[in-house]
Structures are given as C-alpha cells and as structure tokens.
Design goal:
Strand content: 15-25%
Radius of gyration: 17 Å
Helix content: 25-40%
CATH topology: NADH Oxidase
CATH class: Alpha Beta
Shape: globular
CATH superfamily: NADH Oxidase
Number of domains: 1
C-alpha cells in the first residue's frame, strides 16, 4: 500500500478530498516550489477570517538552496533538522500580538493565524504540495534572525514540498512516516450541549 493511501483520513463522514488527503509528511521530493505557487499559498492565507479583519499574521519563507533556507533550518531542533532539509520551502508563521488599530492586546491572534495556516495548507494540498507544521524550533533564534519587534512572535514553522519517497528516510523517521494517522474519537473532541 502506498503512503498516500495509508495516510488518507479514515472517516465515515463525507469529508472534502483536500481534507482527507492532507497530512504531514517528512519525505519530500527533490522538486522546487515555484515562486508563483508560494504567492498563491500566501494569497489563500490572506483571505482567512480574523477578528476585526486585522489579519495579525505574517509569513517569512525561503526556498531550498538559498542562505535564507539555511538560516531558517538552523532554527529547527535537531529532530526536525534530520529531515526538513529536503523540503522545498521553510516558512515561519508570525503573529502580531496587539490590534494594529487600537494597540490593545489581541487575544485571538493565535486562533486567526491558525485559520490562515489551515487555508494555506488546503491551498497547498489542492496543488499537490504537502506541508508539515513544526513546533520543534527555537523561538529565540527566530526572533534574533528576523529581528522581530516585541509585538511579534513566531508561532510555528512549516516545511513545504512535493511528496517524496518515505523509504529514503532514516529508520526511526521512516517508521513514523509509514504509520497510519491516529485520531481521537469524535466523542473525545466534541459534545452536544
């Protein structure tokens, strides 16, 4: 069975194909993402809903083979560095912690960035580009690299690329890559009031 088949969301519900197919690979093909494709993914994120239409996010990304890619790769923890060097693009998702219009704290900024990330990932899936969200990075390295203001913060990083062959991954990473996708039961994540 192919990895794409193993990773399909096993749901009794009629999920949209983009949702069923979306998963987070660690194996990427040696194929670049064109700049115009990245612009499309960022455009999809731009149209996400946000509190007061503030769009409190910013993306900084770099293409493999550039100094910027190496700098972002250096911000990853070793476990993610072991495979993320094969991604076509590394991206940092930043949030602005206060409302631009009022200067007041924006408690919904992380939520809004999450919506933008989801739209970016679904647009990527539509183009057969896969994304792997990364919490395993060093925020202080990102802050220093990008010279962020006190009002900005890195929330996550993302590895993007076309799907590669999981058999080429090192053994411990390969086992995770070939394992089925577990999910909690619906009853564990929702309830009717």
């Amino acid at each position: 069975m192919k990895v794409k088949e193993i990773k399909l969301a096993a749901s009794p519900q009629a999920l949209h194909p983009l949702i069923r197919q979306r998963w987070s690979p660690r194996a990427f093909a040696d194929r670049p993402i064109a700049p115009v494709q990245m612009e499309e993914l960022i455009e999809a994120a731009r149209w996400a809903a946000s509190a007061n239409n503030e769009q409190p996010w910013q993306y900084v990304y770099a293409f493999r083979g550039t100094p910027g890619f190496e700098q972002l790769w250096e911000c990853l923890v070793p476990g993610n560095q072991a495979w993320a060097d094969r991604a076509a693009v590394l991206l940092v998702a930043l949030q602005r912690n206060s409302f631009a219009k009022s200067g007041q704290a924006n408690p919904w900024a992380t939520h809004d960035l999450g919506l933008a990330n989801a739209q970016l990932l679904l647009q990527a899936q539509y183009r057969d580009i896969y994304g792997h969200m990364l919490a395993g990075f060093v925020p202080d390295k990102v802050r220093t690299l990008l010279q962020l203001s006190a009002d900005q913060g890195p929330v996550c990083m993302m590895a993007l690329g076309y799907l590669g062959d999981a058999e080429q991954l090192a053994a411990p990473i390969r086992r995770r890559a070939l394992a089925p996708r577990p999910r909690l039961a619906r009853t564990a994540i929702s309830r009717v009031l």
